[in-house]
Amino acid sequence: MVKYDLPAEIDYILAKTNRSTLSYIGHSQGNLMMFRLMSISDDYMKKIDAFIALSPVTYGLKVTSILRHYYYIQGLLKTYPNLIIFKNPYRLLLPNLCQNILFKPVCQYLLYLTVGMQKHNMIYERIPAYIDAVTMGSSPWNTVQLNGGPLLTQYFDHGKEKNMQIYGQSQAPFYDFSRINSTRIAMIYSEADCLNHMDNVKRFKNELKMKLWDDYLVADPTYDHNDFLWAVNSGQLFELIESRGFRYEQHFLTTPDGYILQLVRMVNPFIKTVDKNRLRPILLHHGFQCSGTIWLIAMNGHLDHNGNYYEMDEKNQILTNNNHMGNSLGFILATSGFDVWLANYRGSIYSTNHTHLDIESSEYWKFSMDQLIHYDLPVQIDYIINHTKHTKLSYIGHSQGALIMFALMSENSSYVEKIEPFIAMAPAFCSYQSKVKSILKYSIVLRNVFLSYPQRFPPMITSSLLRTICQNYFIKQLCFMFNYLMLEYFDYGESENLRIYGQQTPPIYDVSKINSTKIALIYVKNDSLIGNSVQILKSKLKGINPDELVKLLDDYEIPDQTYSHLDLLWAKNSGINVNKKVLQILNFF
């Protein structure tokens, strides 16, 4: 494969495309082949202008999965090179079996045993496809060589006599990776890889004489060998960011009750590392049932070679000009002097890990909005402030993302001082008087069902937009909508409330205690989801003087009367109607 297959593939593509170089991304053995080829051919090293190695297997596999037992049958595999374990129809049998609901847990466990895929990183419905993909077959000799322990850097060992005939020596020669002098190699790897030990990665990096173009350790401590390809969170948000020309950083932080949250930091590649620390940090927090992607998908767009961000309409015509501001707020802020961080609260697709609870257990899902307020949001704010060495943080919350900040400020005045400013978009502050017009007003009838079964909300057949954005299908969190009837702590029922709170009814979050003058409200008149809750919220904000309403930094009602709850994020003209105002407010500071 190193001597014939890979060179033939490279040469064919270059000839077909009339180009002199190509980019190459390899996974696992796909990297080993390229490293071997580069070590024996300077010509092919020059033909690869970017080599990205995902989970680079180079030195012997330190296998922790059941594949380590291949050692015991390597003699059989050498003797019978026509022994193909996954022949048709055997190869087709497993994926078909795995489509059966009774066999899926078995197939899931099989993937864990062989390639180490963690359950919470799998898309459950894709298990048959995973099984099908890992049973495509290979030669027994390739299997023997790949499982050759510390001799993985050797040519194939045919035995002393045959080695003498082929190589002119009794032992198979080694590939010398120190000969590789390319500076266009990037490596992406993880600590939890069951097939590729960190010791081998470090050893290989020491072997290379040239500095790597990028050296990236995946921050998720549970990422395994095939999670680079198939993990639930391997794409989507990150693909969105990269497709627009930006980069990103993943930051993982643990809450006091053990939930592992992921913050995604957007990186503008045109801003130098020295200047990045001078950028103003800003945290964008999504609403109910959504994720950090909500801030990025209003329009297609890209960074040009000068670092300018342009957006395109449905016909791919450039929209951004003096009369049009971009609609995707995350990208607009990242090109306007801000250090943009995207929040993903517990249980959302990008924050599914826990220090000891299984995501499939009911214990994992026994949390309410109170935990977002008391644990998740403070941890996120403090992490960003400490990481960026700033003393204050700007914050934009949409819907529930605004609600949890109001609740936190009402409970802890120290966070009032840390946020400058707080922009609340369509803040979902409700009371019994609020007039919700959408079908969600009927969700109260399901309250007891959701309380009794605190597992994830079953996936629904939705449009591709909803599949991308509202990636959090969890039942317990729908109870937040009931809590909106009053901004109160979670209602466990009279007896449990008495045990937890010392009273039969849950206490309320008293927003009249908030005395910040750095709060701006952006809302619409005809919001079908939150009704007239903004007016009720404004009447509750008393500030220092209880006889006077707090002076808002800005009180902005969108002039377009057709706007509703999500139009603040995704309307075709949200750039002019919303984002322009957001930048004006932020520029006060």
TrEMBL record:
Protein name, as recorded: Triacylglycerol lipase-like protein
Tree of life domain: Eukaryota
Gene3D superfamilies in UniProt: alpha/beta hydrolase
Partial AB-hydrolase lipase domain ranges (all copies): 239-297
Organism: Euroglyphus maynei
Classification via SUPFAM superfamilies: alpha/beta-Hydrolases
Annotated GO biological process: lipid metabolic process
